[in-house]
Amino acid sequence: MLVLDSIHLQIEGEETPLLSNISVLFPASHFGAILGPSGCGKSTLLKVIAGILPHTSGALYWQGKNLENEDLPAHQLGYVPQFSCTHPRLTVRENLIYCARLRKKGTPQEIASTVDQVSEETGLTELQNRMAGVLSGGQLRRLGLAMELTTQPSLLLADEVTSGLDPKSEEEITELLSSLSQEQGRLVLLVTHSLRNIEVYDSITVLTGGRLAYSADPRDLTHYFQVKNPELIYPALAQRDPEAWGQDWDELPKPEGMTPRNILGELESMTISEEKEESLELPSFLSQSWTWLRRRLKIFFRDPAQVFLQLSLLLIFPAVVTLFAYRGLPEVRNMAMSSDTGVVEQLRDSLAFTIQSSRVGTLVSGLAMFQVILLALMGSNNSAREVVGDRPILEKEKLAGLRTGSALFGMGLFLTFLVLAQSIWMTLFVRAVCQFPGNLFDQFLPFFFLTGGVTALCLAISSWASSSEQASLGSLYLVGFQLPLSGAILALPDFLGILTRPFISAYWAWSCYLQTLRDTRFYDVVRFITETPLAGSTVSLWILLVHLGLGGVFAYFGMRRSQWR
Amino acid sequence: MARRAHQKTPSSLLFGFVAVFFVFAAVGAFFLQKGSNPYRTVEPLKPNDYFENANSLRGNIYQVEGVIMNALAQNPEKGRLFSIVLTSESKKWPMPIFIPSKLRQINLQKNQSYRAKVRVDDSGILVAEEIQKS
To answer: Does the pTM exceed 0.90?
Structure first.
């Protein structure tokens, strides 16, 4: 049984509460509809019940337990939002399999059996191998419901799942929900605009302006609102102030023992028997990460545009770098050591060396920075939309029991593959064509940590951004500021350099890469032309590692916070 | 206890994390940077003292960092004598440095910067005991 006791929800700075004094109870094995005109608080109420929105005052009880003290176990709650939570590039069956694997423990056979069962229940058996992206609106709603049913929830909340459907599909979905409410003492609540076929519901709850105007048997609905048919309720509601409707309902004598307060009194006086806890264990942390990774890889390889873009960047960027030294780095001619030569000869030698140093030093420094900037760009492309793009799905899956850490770990593994491919290929290709001297592994390390660091920082931006555009712009700025603030092209004023360098990943990767040339003349000519001090390789790697860690921590908290739209 | 779906992270915790990371980064960088100079425990040579009275420094060990200017003399058995320019207090100080033949594995080039651990010998010349590129 679900009891709502004087639920009140007010947004800070807003005068009118979104929900005011909502007291209602829903028994088990019940199919209830929540009706009302647009903006009356139907979906808000459902979100409060699901725990997505925090109510300001009042209390919610589920099976006698105050949900503020002990939240619903993830598997007991099914919430079908207005938007689709399916992956369009996965088939119906794959969507269901991955959904079940993220939510419950079980062998592949057990998971497959659950998927077969819910597919049959929701009429999706024939559509198992169809891509979710080509399903009709009604089929998508069925898939959304089927995904929730994988854990056999005892409370199923459906937010406008019949909206926008043709009358036949609407009727089918409503009947499906009605039949689901007959199973295992399940309570099903449906938010809807539709006033057709109201007799199918066990109860109708009407909201207006955030107030409860009615919550009782559908057969008494027209009588209570003094209208001839249910379609006339909305015009009737508009004729009076929501407060007046709310007051009328509050003052209406209820059958004894059937008010939320009375029920609560009874619940409190009872010793709630320690029922055998209906438990459904969540998969382990690593199991959820592994499922997340497998699903991400499948979606990635099924998206030709994404694969093409990644491959293009991977191959074209290093090729662009080598255009500037495709014949290899030029030889550096040393100055004569002897002091026996004349002054003119020495000056001529010195001038030739200066010109050469300037040319070669600029080339070497530029090639190093060019690689760094292009890798940073690839890093931002890796993750700028990774979280924000599928945020609604992430929120939905967190509600269903997915650990934030598991999602982040799975995401991290996926991004590590990309980062490895990008940094290895850039190091190998540019080194081979331009014939860079120095240790190969030492040159790979700063590139790997730089790409990883920028990827992690952009992942953090993505997890805190409220839209894809915002995340892309933030990531673009992050990369855009790297070049000017690195001091590689133009030296910054000393104080500015000290202030900005700690944050500029490109500076540390550039320095670290150049340090690998330390035993060659290339290092000397770069030192000759640049006024920016070069950091040591160990310090550089350390700072890049800190950037990576900072990005990871911020991404975790960004993903952990609730961001329902 | 807040419900699962509306967990919030206090901003103080986030600021705390940032602060911890910066302290972590700064402390790590400080120690790593310090460790990058192998002669950090050796006292740097003060050119002013050297030019005032090099004899008083005889036998002492110092670290120097400077740019090689010219080869002054060489003996395949003993080593090579170079002039090196040290920069101290915004002034440039040319000095003689002798690189014994035991350090011949290092490639010394004009205009290249080196860091060395040196001993002031009886004639006042700096004799490198260890040397590396800086």
So the answer is: no
Alpha carbon distance A208, A16 (integer Å):
13
Q: Is residue A495 part of a domain?
A: yes
Domain for residue A513, yes or no?
A: yes
List the one residue out of A272, A214, A212, A238 whose CA is nearest residue A70: A272
pLDDT tens column, A92-120? 999 999 999 999 999 999 999 999 999 99
A329 and A424 part of one domain:
yes
Q: pLDDT digits over B8-19, tens only?
A: 777 888 888 888
A356 and A430 assigned to the same domain: yes
- Whether A52 contacts chain B with CB within 8 A: yes
CATH architecture of B47-133: Beta Barrel (2.40)
Interchain pair A74, B2: CB under 8 A: no
3-state secondary structure A131-149: EHHHCCHHHHHHHHHHHHH
The full 3-state SS of A214-252, as one line of letters, equals EEECHHHHHHHHCCCCHHHHHHHHHCCCHHHHHHHHHHC
What total number of domains does chain A contain?
A: 2
Q: How many CB pairs under 8 A join A and B?
A: 101
Q: What residues does A31 pair with on adjacent strands?
A: A188
ipTM: 0.71
Residue A263 belongs to what domain range?
2-85+158-267
Q: Is A88 on the interface with B (CB under 8 A)?
A: no
